[in-house]
């Protein structure tokens, strides 16, 4: 028996693969390597190279590896780009999820953990986001993740009472940072940590986009969580499903306490030893002051907690990025 991790060659997926293996479960990866890297998949873990859009391949992989459950991480994650490429985003995130569910039904696989996103909330107008906070996605990306959640819900309704009722949960990530393995790092050209790392490595000065927000130091506050903690929540969800315990349809993997961009910049200077004063640029359109979620529900069911300080998040990410050369 194994667990299929779609997108297991990516930044988060490859951490999930490691956490599953450490917990004694057998991970198998399906990845088309569109943004992931084969080198991120640990030795000894099967890597099936191909797309989740390939229905036959997904079903064959599920059968050949006697898959017990799927952790569906594969997806197109760039919210900004999704505005220019809505059809691509919908194909990858909506059609991709539909195909995975269809192949699972055909192969008799009845457990799925889905990588959802804070983007389902859009720009929430509340101090602390909870699972029930209104969903108002502000991009095709956020919409596609919300539809992914609905697909799981609807398939669970359709299979309830059958021989194989679908057990499912959607884990909503906020800002995932750091590294739990020095050989894996975030390659995203659009996320704060990699942007700052690349700037510093090139000898440049990182920039803050706006310092006149309604926050204590004027810069955006976001919910940064360590990727290793994110990975452990997937293992806990899988184990809950294996044990047949009830599981919620969605969990916000939030810290309950955000960090401002300036606090991150201070940690970057402290940890890297590179003294810099960030440039202040204009605001980015549509950037809300603050997005912070409580992870209380995940703490109750998935042993969710912040196991890392901001300096540990920065240090681990920086070391992994530098190790990559
Ligand atoms: N990084 C974050 O902060 C964050 C926040 C919220 C949600 N998410 C979600 O988490 C998931 C993983 O994000 P990540 O940061 O690891 O990104 P990533 O780009 O590193 O990982 C995505 C992986 O999926 C693979 N993939 C993409 N399309 C595929 C397809 N059609 N078939 C097979 N494999 C495919 C890629 O090659 C890559 O390995 C995504 O679904 C993303 O939307 C990420």
Q: What is the terminal-to-terminal distance?
A: 37 Å
User: What is the CA-atom radius of gyration, in angstroms?
Assistant: 19 Å
CATH class of the largest domain: Alpha Beta
Helix vs. strand class: alpha/beta
Mean pLDDT: 97
Question: Could you list the spans in which at least 5 consecutive residues all have pLDDT below 50?
Answer: none
Percentage of residues in strands = 15-25%
Percent helix among the residues? 25-40%
Largest sheet: 7 strands, parallel
Description:
By secondary structure, this protein is of the alpha/beta class. It has 2 domains: 2-174 and 225-253, 3-Layer(aba) Sandwich (Rossmann fold); 177-223 and 255-292 and 306-323, UDP-galactose 4-epimerase, domain 1 (Alpha-Beta Complex), CATH 3.90.25. It is 40% helix and 17% strand. The protein is built from 10 helices and 13 strands. It has helices at 11-22, 55-64, 79-84, 86-107, 140-159, 192-201, 227-242, 261-272, 296-302, 310-323; strands at 2-6, 27-31, 46-49, 67-72, 111-117, 167-173, 175-177, 207-209, 221-222, 224-226, 250-253, 259-260, 279-281. The strands form 4 sheets. It has a 7-stranded parallel sheet, sandwiched between helices. Strands 7-10 form a two-stranded parallel ribbon. α1 links the parallel β1 and β2. α2 runs parallel beside α4 and α6 packs across α10 (310-323). It starts with a strand and ends with a helix. The relative contact order is 0.14. Nicotinamide-adenine-dinucleotide binds at residues 6-7, 9-13, 30-36, 51-53, 73-75, 77, 92, 96, 115, 117, 173, 175-176.
């Amino acid at each position: 028996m194994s667990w299929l991790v779609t997108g297991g060659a990516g930044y988060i997926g490859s951490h999930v693969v490691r956490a599953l293996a450490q917990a004694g479960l057998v991970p198998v990866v399906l990845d088309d390597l569109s943004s992931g890297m084969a080198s991120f998949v640990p030795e000894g873990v099967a890597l099936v190279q191909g797309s989740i859009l390939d229905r036959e391949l997904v079903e064959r992989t599920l059968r050949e590896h006697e898959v017990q459950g799927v952790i569906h991480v594969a997806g197109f994650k760039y919210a900004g780009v999704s505005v220019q490429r809505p059809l691509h985003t919908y194909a990858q995130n909506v059609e991709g999820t539909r195909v995975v569910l269809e192949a699972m039904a055909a192969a008799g696989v009845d457990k799925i953990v889905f990588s959802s996103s804070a983007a389902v909330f859009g720009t929430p107008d509340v101090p602390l986001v909870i699972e029930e906070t209104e969903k108002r996605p502000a991009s095709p990306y956020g919409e596609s993740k919300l539809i992914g959640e609905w697909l799981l819900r609807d398939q669970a309704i359709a299979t309830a009472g059958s021989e194989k009722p679908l057990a499912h949960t959607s884990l909503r990530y906020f800002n995932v940072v750091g590294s739990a393995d020095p050989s894996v790092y975030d390659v995203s050209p659009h996320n704060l940590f990699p942007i700052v790392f690349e700037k510093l490595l090139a000898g440049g000065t990182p920039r803050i986009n706006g310092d006149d927000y309604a926050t204590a130091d004027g810069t955006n506050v976001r919910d940064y969580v360590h990727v290793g903690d994110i990975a452990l929540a997937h293992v806990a969800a899988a184990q809950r499903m294996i044990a047949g315990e009830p599981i919620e349809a969605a969990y916000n993997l939030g810290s309950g306490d955000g960090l401002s961009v300036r606090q991150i910049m201070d940690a970057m200077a402290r940890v890297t030893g590179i003294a810099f004063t960030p440039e202040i640029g204009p605001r980015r359109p549509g950037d809300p002051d603050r997005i912070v979620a409580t992870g209380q529900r995940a703490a109750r069911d998935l042993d969710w907690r912040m196991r890392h300080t901001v300096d540990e998040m920065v240090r681990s990410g920086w070391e992994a990025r530098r190790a990559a050369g």
